[in-house]
Amino acid sequence: MDPTVRRAETTDGRVYTLSDTVGFVKHLPHDLIDAFKSTLEEVSGADVIVHVVDGSHPDPIGQIAAVRGVIDEIGGAKIPEIIALNKADIAGPETMALVLRQEPDAYPISVHTGAGIAELVRAIESSLPRPRVEVRTLLPYDRGDLVNQIHEHGEILSEEYEGEGTRIHALVDGALAHVLEKYVR
């Protein structure tokens, strides 16, 4: 029941991590409940939850409620949620209409046909946090590790190579800004 973790990048170059946890199984045997919950505990540290719901399931509303109950139990109730209503290409129109009435911000998608995927990706990207601290640094060439961190976790506004090192103007998070303080010029 280990989650699959992958690195991804937004269209504007922000790097983020996707963690695909195990799908929810109703009437899970008691000996597997703890294992199931432990895989979902990663959710409590997420910036956004993309909850993929099987639109062709006989009770997708029940699935949504059950998963939200578990997410509440592990401390994830306040994390923003995006509902991706999968199998929109084969789900019954009545079921789709019911879910969309209850979850009007849900994204009907089809992994099979690709329908709705671009809209879902845009929604995910817009919900991810953006770096907020503006820094202007001159990093010595032997600190390429910090240049890489800025590229991976920040937004580069400008970058120039000078005799003393790499001059970068960027937006970064608070923790990285603190690390870069001694290079601010």
Describe the protein:
The chain has helices at residues 30-40, 60-73, 93-102, 117-127, 144-153, 174-180; strands spanning 4-9, 15-20, 49-54, 81-86, 107-108, 133-139, 155-161, 166-172. The protein has 185 residues and is of the alpha/beta class. The protein folds into 2 domains: 4-127, Rossmann fold (3-Layer(aba) Sandwich), CATH 3.40.50.300; 133-183, no CATH class. The strands form 3 sheets. A 3-stranded parallel sheet has the order 3-4-5, sandwiched between helices. The mean pLDDT is 87. It contains 6 helices and 8 strands, in the order ββαβαβαβαβαββα.
How is this structure best summarized?
By secondary structure, the protein is an alpha/beta fold. The protein has helices spanning 30-40, 60-73, 93-102, 117-127, 144-153, 174-180; strands at 4-9, 15-20, 49-54, 81-86, 107-108, 133-139, 155-161, 166-172. The mean pLDDT is 87.
Distance between the termini: 48 Å
Secondary structure: helix percent: 25-40%
The coarse silhouette is: elongated
The second-level CATH architecture of the largest domain is: 3-Layer(aba) Sandwich
- CATH topology of the largest domain, what is it called? Rossmann fold
State the helix count: 6
What strand line-up does the widest sheet have?
3-4-5
Taken as a percent bin, the fraction of beta residues is 25-35%
Major β-sheet annotation: 3 strands, parallel
